[in-house]
Amino acid sequence: MENKKILIVDDNNLNRKVLENIICHNYEFESAENGLEAIGKIKKDIFHVILMDIQMPVMDGITALKIIKEEALTDAPIIAISAYSDQTDYEYFLSAGFDEFIAKPVKPKKLLESIQQHLSNYNNAPSSDNHQLTSDILDESVLIQLMKYNTLDNIKTVYEDFDEEAECLIDEIKHLIDVKKYSEIGEKLHILKGNSGTLGAKQLFKHVGIFEQKIKDTNFEDIIEDYLTLQNQLNIFKSHLKDKITHHKNE
Length: 251
Prior knowledge:
This is Response regulator. This protein is of the alpha/beta class.
């Protein structure tokens, strides 16, 4: 399983070291000390399996899982790692949305077998799942509708103008963060949300909406991570759109 990366989330330093020592010979890994730190890492990097402790300060595993699911931050399997071990706990964690539950103390053989199984299931998922992931980036019906009345070159120009304006807006948001004028960010996000919605940038539109609501609620705790997410989503959209336009040109 080359190039597979595991995220270990546990507030206990000894527990993290144990998990790191178990998986380090088979996989790359990063570690986080709580759910909030884990979410920040997930927004910036790709992980193929997440090992999530339940009881942690700052943000517990259940809350982190809920945010990951609500914001669609990753489709990687998330395994609950906890000292809870009876059948009721097992059923609760699965019903909460975890893909598996492993009780502490963790048995190395059991953990490695579980990771391998989840990676295998992920790699063998139907191709329609992959299509769903890419369709979440761009609402292709918008592109098809534009193609009824415009040439591909004209459409490309429209999207290039959108990309350029989006980059400027995101740069302005970063400046407002730097000077701590958080209340002025909402206006920039409102413009970006309208434009991304009009042109079918679905994931960008979604994350702009989440960021905008946080500004309205004066929730500035994760403002740098929210900014980085917008930047990342715009880059993903630009790359995906380029591939789509190239595909249509070759048809």
